[in-house]
Amino acid sequence: MFPPTYIEGFHDPEAVKAMEYKELGKTGMFVSKLAFGSATLCALYNLNNEAEAIETVRQAIKQGVNYIDTAPWYGQGQSEAILGKALKGIPRKAYYISTKVGRYELDYDNMFNFTVEKTRQSFKKSLELLGLDYVDLIQIHDIDFAPTTDVIVTQTLPELSKYVADGKARHVGVTAYTLSALKECIEKSNIVATVLSYSRNTLIDDSLLEYIPFFKKHKIGLINAAALCMGLLTNNGPQSWHSASDETKKQCAKAAQYCKDRDVELSKLAIWHSMQCMDVDTNLVGIQNMKELQINLDVTLNGITEKEKAVLKEIKEKFLSTKNHHWEGKDVRMYKEGLKKK
């Protein structure tokens, strides 16, 4: 059975048939198991081929990847602008797309702003960059950085609900690294339809599993993002700005070297591992080029080989046996300290 986003003559029917789709909470959006993360479509992740990135987005949609995630924070609008170019000429019905409000610039003074006025300005600009009249999901970005949860509940969420009423967004969601912040927000508001949790269901951190029953009880759509821990679980390693501890980076680097020595891609193993959790609705993976798209489609549709399973078992035992190597609170502390210095 084809999802509601399927368009005959546009999609590859065999690819769409092979893809698994699940309803995102109670939104009525049936999203692909693999979702397209566009944080990588900017200088933050050293994007160097915009033309290929645009074609990669288009091919992903044709191959049945029907959920796309972006945000103003990703390159201060660069990701949204590239997606705007990529989506030109593609039927609007063919995909679901989400963007965010709340997180913006590298400068500490302008990094976060959850006020109604800034939210309104940001959302208007996002629609312009994307070239769209509406988005399927509008999310508040990294709510754990807000002064208090009450700011989110009394200011930002009510403003987003207006966009739903006006037809400029279909649903409202929240994102955070801190899982308790997501839980608290849902407890205080009945507006939230989805949560995006990142780097919390991975080879080195499985703390998301503790919170899944709560999300399911409230029929919240669950977007599981960053199975690669923002580059930690790849053969090339993370960007220099990554917040993980030196020890965590060291252990992941050992696992990566072990994989390279056996001609295996650590990222493929990490994504497959994360996708074994059946309680999430979609798995959001950053994709920058055609090679990465094909690797992710292959692991989504075909799994991993016996050799790769053996290597995965070995790196778990040798390097990644201890779980929950998270960096919760570190980024928030750095942000607050940066504000004080300013």
From TrEMBL:
GO terms for cellular component: cytosol. Signal peptide: none annotated. One of its GO terms (molecular function) is L-galactose dehydrogenase activity. Coiled coil: none annotated. Residues 33-315 form the NADP-dependent oxidoreductase domain. This is NADP-dependent oxidoreductase domain-containing protein. It comes from Atta cephalotes (Leafcutter ant).
